[in-house]
Amino acid sequence: MSAISHQVPTPPAGEETESLEGTKKQGTTARLFDEMLQLIESGIWAVGAAIPSERNLMLQFGVSRIAVREALSMLRALGVLEISHGKSTTVRKMSTETLAKLFPLLLSLEGEQSLTHVFEVRCALELQTARLAAVKRTADDLHRLSDLTERFDSYQTDTPESIEADHQFHVQIAKSTGNPLFWVLLNVLGSFVKYSQRESGKHDPEQHLKASRSHHEILQAIRERDADLASLCMERHLRDAHRIKVT
After folding, report:
1. Is residue 9 assigned to a domain?
2. CATH number of the domain residue 78 falls in
3. Does 143 map to a domain?
4. Does the structure show a pLDDT above 70 at 200?
5. What would the pLDDT profile of 53-71 be if each residue is shown by its tens digit?
């Protein structure tokens, strides 16, 4: 009995060449994208400044116009470049709104998040913001926190408006630290925080009243510049909001 020969079909020469060219093109675009992003991250391409023209980019990187345009398009989609027809391409300041759109996508690629995950991240972040706010807050910070506390009090249960007021109260505490990274991070986490609040509260008037009392306790600790108490009140508030028992 003769053996059966299994051979992998060889693609026509034209198709093989086209496939290799496509792979090479993708590699060039990806490399160019990474190099341009490094120029932005390093500040060589400064925020608000115009970047070199397409022709100069082609000469600088030794690539085709197509590769330059594709890399620029990727950076524009990322939100770091502003491309206007007939005008120079400039570097944009990355806004918290842009991060808020990208961050949930990045997290979703890492798998499912639970309410416990959100609670753990909030504790790591907000116990410190409450502590620092008590030390660094200004009179204006206290005024804003008081207004947000009263706004939350004006609702009887969880609504989109009350959840937003609660979120802004926590963001304002982060702003009161004087460290912009805190409130940027907290604002970016906003969609997950609001989701956890909706799931935990479920239009429970009693839970809403507990949250209101917690806000007043946190505010008073910050007003008295009691960092330890502010941190403790914040932890109690977050545990209660997420229905997490003390272990």
Report:
1. no
2. 1.10.10.10
3. yes
4. no
5. 999 999 999 999 999 999 9
